Amino acid sequence: MIQFDQVTKRYPGSDEILKNISFSIDAGEFVFITGHSGAGKSTLLKLIAATERPTSGTVLIANQNVSKLKPSAIPYLRRRFGLIFQDHKLLYDRNCFENVILPLRINGVAEQEAAKRVRAALDKVGLLNKERAMPITLSGGEQQRLAIARAVVSRPSILLADEPTGNLDASYAAEIMSIFYSFNQVGVTVIMSTHDALGMSANQNRVLHLNQGKLTESSLDQTGLNQNTLPTETFSS
Amino acid sequence: MSNWLNHHLQAIKLVLSRMRSNLLSSFMICLVIGVALCLPSLFYLGVDNLSKLTDHMQNETEISLFLKLNASADTIAEIDALLAKNPAIKQYHLVTKDEAWKQLQAKSKDNQDVSDAINQLGKNPLPDAFFIQAKSANPETLEALRNTLQNIPGVEQAILNAEWAKRLATLLSIGKKLIFFIAALLTIVLLVIIGNTVRMQILTQKDEIEVSYLIGATNSFIRTPFLYAGVFYGLFGSALAILMIAGMIQTFNYSVLEISRLYNGDFSLTLFNASLFLTVIGVAVGIGWIGSYFAVTRAINVVKIN
After folding, report:
1. Sign of the four-CA dihedral A35, A38, A39, A43
2. What's the gap in Å between the CA of A58 and the closest CA on chain B?
3. Cα A101 to chain center, whole Å?
4. For residue A16, is pLDDT > 90?
5. A12 touches chain B (CB under 8 A)
């Protein structure tokens, strides 16, 4: 579904953020991307979401080479993803309902159908009763859940979450994680970056670990919780 | 199709609600646009009505045909016959030297100096004269007719009374060129005003644009509401301009009617000049669209790069 082949990313005037990275992610996987801040986690997610293009190498999303896509085709590629950001990127000038309906408006979903789907998404994250509330009145955890509702309302096949629990305390974080797991269970591919092991729980998860732009991969199980930063397999060469 | 319609309806609703929430500043922008549209329109109306007025007057221009002082009754009859045959002449009438003399004495009755001077002349110095109205108001045709009449034997002088109307018409043609330049300059001003307004709006909506891009919005999705904003500014601005113009015409009409009455005319300015109003609306909407198109295209690139 997602395939990176010897991908290098360098911003003008900086060192290589990602060095020669290769990996692939299949449909339905739940993958963590870990590493210190500045290790290139966000850049990796941006490459997947096609907001950045690789300096060299190829990024294939659903068998489409992102580097060779026409600019006009990129929006349609992006609609396959649900994006969740650490800072939520909610729009504070409108209520929860209007925030969540935005992707459906972009997709051109008819208003009645859209309203139904918005309520379903709000219900899934437990915010149905906050439909008319302004996002600023919500707690941090609720805001992140709202952001998740917005990401899933268009029923994307892939969820990309950039440190979704980064600013939250443990109980909120666990709540958010359980929401992601429930989406993964119904077949949604989830790719999540996180700078700590917090919230990586129960299931056996695949972990892509970034260290100074290099990728190492480990499998995370219950006993591996505190060792997830240790490389077990080197993917980059 | 219904998607497309839905998208546009959404954009229109969004723009109108944004305008409503910033009612005062939206009104100010529309007012500026309205005033800018008003200036060339009023100038146009002024020139247009003046040229109608001069047409009106040129229609009434006469050629005065003064005969030689010693013209006999036969000569007068001959000329009368010639005039009657001339197809370019609408109507004419003869004022004999005696009639003219009596008119002059009657007119100068109130003025002692003039009547004294006239009385001192002792004899009638006035010639017989024909006053001729031509069918055409065209200055060249009139001039040609005057030349023909001048060459009739027994005619001392043929005078075209339309000289001043001709000069005014020339001045008005300069005025028309001026309108063009004023309109062109104000078009540039409007493009800048609307472009800048839309650019400011884009900056306040930067977050929304950014998020929309991230979740797969196309350029046209982002652009549409701003294009509608430009179009609505043009529309509302032109509506204000039309109100202002109509108000001014109405006030002018009171004085114009007054003057017109003094000259025994019934000339007034038309309140609803449909073609002018439609032009104003069309131009404003067009300028709004173009101005916001350029602003939004530039701003989108800036937001995208960030």
Report:
1. positive
2. 21
3. 19
4. no
5. no
Question: Do B216 and A110 make contact, defined as CB atoms within 8 angstroms?
Answer: no
pLDDT tens by residue, A119-142: 999 999 999 999 999 999 998 889
Q: Domain check: are B93 and B24 in the same one?
A: no
Rounded mean pLDDT, A30-37: 88
Among B113, B137, B161, identify where a domain stops.
B161
Q: What is the pLDDT of residues B37-60, one digit of tens each?
A: 998 898 888 888 877 777 766 666
- The span from the CA of A68 to the CA of A53, in Å, is 10
Tell me the shortest Cα–Cα distance from A40 to chain B, in angstroms: 18
**Residue ending a domain, choose from B135, B161, B187:** B161
Who wins on pLDDT, B186 or B161? B186
Cβ contacts of B262 within 8 Å, gap of 6 or more: none
Same-domain status, B14 and B152: no
Q: Domain holding B123: CATH number?
A: 3.30.70.3040
Mutate to test the interface with B, among A91, A101, A146 (most CBs of B within 10 A): A91
Q: Is pLDDT of B217 > 80? A: yes
**What is this model's ipTM?**
0.80
Domain spans of chain A?
91-156
- The verdict on B185 and B258 lying in the same domain is yes
Distance of residue A110 Cα from the nearest chain B Cα, in angstroms: 7
pLDDT band per the 50, 70, 90 thresholds, residue B264: low
User: What's the rounded mean pLDDT across residues A54-75?
Assistant: 89
**Same domain (yes/no): B29, B116:** no
Are residues B214 and A78, on separate chains, in Cβ contact within 8 Å? Answer: yes
Sequence-distant (6+) residues with CB within 8 A of A20 are A6, A7, A8, A57, A214, A236, A237
Q: Kindly report the CA angle at A10 between A6 and A14, in degrees rounded to 5?
A: 150
* Residues in chain A, overall count: 237
Are the beta carbons of B281 and B182 closer than 8 angstroms?
Answer: no
Instruction: Classify residue A135 by its DSSP letter.
Output: G
Neighbouring C-beta atoms of residue A52, cutoff 10 Å: 19
Whether residues B215 and A76 touch (CB distance < 8 A) is answered with no
Q: What is the torsion angle, in degrees rounded to the nearest 10, for the CA atoms of residue B205, residue B207, residue B210 and residue B211? A: -120
Provide the residue range defining the domain that includes B219.
2-57+166-305
Chain B neighbors of A79, CB-CB under 8 A? 215-216
Rounded average pLDDT over B212-222: 88
Q: Are B141 and B134 in contact (CB under 8 A)?
A: yes
The type of residue at A54 is P
How large a percentage of chain B has pLDDT more than 90? Answer: 21
User: What is the value of pTM for the model shown?
Assistant: 0.70
